[in-house]
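Hey, sorry to bother you again with one of my protein questions. There's a protein on my desk that I can't quite get my head around. No rush at all, and the record is pasted right below.
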Amino acid sequence: MEHTVTTLNRPDTDFDVELRPSCFEDFMGQAKVKERLELFVQAAREREDVLDHALLSGPPGLGKTTLAYIIAEAMGSNIKCTSGPVIDKPGDLAGLLTSLERGDVLFIDEIHRMQKTVEEYLYSAMEDFVIDIVIDQGPNARSVRLNIQPFTLIGATTRSGLLSAPMRSRFGLLNRLDYYEANTLQQIIERSARILDVEIDAEGAREIAGRSRGTPRIANNLLRRVRDYAQVKADNAITADIADAALAMLDIDEHGLDEMDKRILSVIIEKFTGGPVGLSSLAVSVGEEADTLEEVYEPYLIQEGFLKRTPKGRVATERAYTLFGLKPGGAQQTLL
């Protein structure tokens, strides 16, 4: 079967696509998840069956979309990509589902943000491969059942807790992606550098990996910025010193914290005496959306021990005070 990819409202750049692994062998990290998916794909292919529906959860930038493409490639199937907020009406979903061929992959990013009325149409599609469409309104309304080809739904979510129980239970393969180790990120950076034809030594790759917040997407983005710096100031060669200078210019410190991370911590320490402070108040104080703080910034700050969540709100830890050269409970100085 001819392998095609249909992308619906996807924001990927050419840079992202160029660096994306196309097979399990090239995908680094997430060893347990990769091993399970490879096994399930092989079993489905040997039976000439359709792969069960799969849910990929975890923080942004860890490879959920990449794995969806790899699964489709490994199954020899076409893939259609969209995102939860884009599907406004059941008719939009019906159009997608009826266009699928047997074994095709439908990838829905941020599936937890899909409208509930649309989500309910997926239930029968996932279980019985049928959809019921209501035609007309009022006394003339009637339901028409359409058969669709067996397909694989791959859902990606950064907040699996927001998925409804009926939706979650219909996924046969549940996989959570975790942050990457620095050694794995170093390998990813070295692979990306080869693809981009960028000269980089092991120490330079390690320097970038250590500040990438455990996230391949951030690692590749930092590599691109360091490449620009090296092109202008270091004859296109990236060493540890060049990487350190480039990242310092970007205000990314040795912990991987950027300007907004430090602003969050400094606001908690200075304006709220270390906390606890509610998420809404913190969002207003730093000029950022509460959802962005919760999904993008907080996970890494908590993981690295700079911030903790309590029933009363967010609290800066002793390590956060140390970052600014302060002591908890001591006299505060202006940080902002």
